[in-house]
């Protein structure tokens, strides 16, 4: 049996990045099986799964360039002094001069984040998820998972934030992908996977955003799972492998 209600759009805020969303054609109740053609929107986007090789290579180049922008730099002033410039993420403490100098001498590589992105892109492609670096359909969203189209969309300017932020957005939406697969198939309405929903106060405040004003309790649980686990960069891949490819 399928539900008759509309599938809502679930969204998640991400620090510095605005909103992430999950677009759903229909939402199945807890006692309703998934996997029926009636529960799948007829609108399906054309194109191969994953990112094409050229787009993927460009993505990784752009992320590497964006990552370099997170390395502090020193500028000499006319009076003989030195000015230090660096980017700071929302909620991060200000850096001391010794900390800034240490980052200049030993800049972060973001290799772990880029490796996680590559591994997750591979798993999503194998799961037949289409990935588009385009403006999401949901206004203000940084990323969204659209099961009715089998498409994960990420706003292009998220790439400009660098590998750390891009990896979180991709991982967040991949958890939503696994929530769909956990309900029977890639195009199914998502269901909670039983992951922890505990999160710190900063992430908790994201759920107070206006985009959640009409979110049902079940939608809130789905988003809480994604938020509480988005920083575990290996988890999204493991969930997609387990629920979509096993």
What does this structure look like?
By secondary structure, the chain is an alpha/beta fold. It folds into two domains: 9-62 and 110-244, no CATH class; 71-105, no CATH class. Helices cover 36% and strands 13% of the residues. A five-stranded mixed beta sheet has the order 1-2-6-7-5, with helices on one face. A two-stranded antiparallel sheet has the order 3-4. The longest helix has 19 residues, at 163-181. Residues 1-19 and 25-44 have low confidence and may be disordered.
Radius of gyration of CA atoms, rounded to a whole number: 19 Å
Spans where pLDDT lies below 50 across 5 or more residues = 1-19, 25-44
Strand content: 5-15%
Oligomer: single chain
Query: What do the pLDDT scores average to?
Result: 82
SS-based structural class?
A: alpha/beta
Total helical segments: 7
Helix content: 25-40%
Sheet with the most strands, sense and barrel status: 5 strands, mixed
Query: What is the number of independent domains?
Result: 2
Terminal residue distance: 25 Å
Question: What string, H for helix and E for strand, traces the elements in order?
Answer: EEHEEHHEEEHHHH
């Amino acid at each position: 049996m399928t539900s008759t209600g509309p599938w809502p759009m679930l969204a998640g805020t991400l620090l510095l990045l605005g909103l992430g969303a999950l677009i759903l054609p229909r939402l199945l109740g807890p006692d309703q099986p998934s996997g029926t053609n009636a529960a799948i929107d007829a609108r399906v986007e054309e194109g191969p799964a994953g990112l094409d090789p050229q787009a993927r290579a460009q993505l990784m180049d752009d992320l590497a360039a964006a990552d370099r922008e997170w390395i502090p730099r020193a500028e000499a002033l006319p009076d003989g002094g030195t000015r230090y410039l660096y980017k700071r993420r929302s909620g991060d403490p200000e850096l001391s001069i010794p900390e800034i100098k240490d980052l200049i001498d030993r800049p972060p590589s973001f290799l772990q984040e880029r490796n996680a992105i590559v591994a997750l892109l591979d798993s999503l492609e194998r799961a037949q998820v289409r990935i588009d670096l385009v403006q999401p359909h949901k206004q203000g969203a940084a990323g969204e998972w659209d099961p009715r189209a089998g498409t994960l969309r990420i706003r292009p300017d998220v790439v400009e934030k660098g590998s750390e932020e891009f990896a979180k957005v991709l991982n967040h939406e991949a958890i939503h992908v696994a929530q769909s697969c956990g309900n029977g198939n890639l195009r199914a309405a998502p269901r909670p996977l039983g992951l922890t929903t505990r999160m710190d106060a900063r992430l908790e405040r994201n759920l107070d955003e206006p985009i959640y004003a009409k979110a049902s309790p079940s939608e809130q649980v789905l988003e809480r799972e994604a938020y509480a686990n988005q920083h575990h960069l290996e988890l999204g891949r493991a969930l997609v492998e387990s629920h979509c490819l096993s």
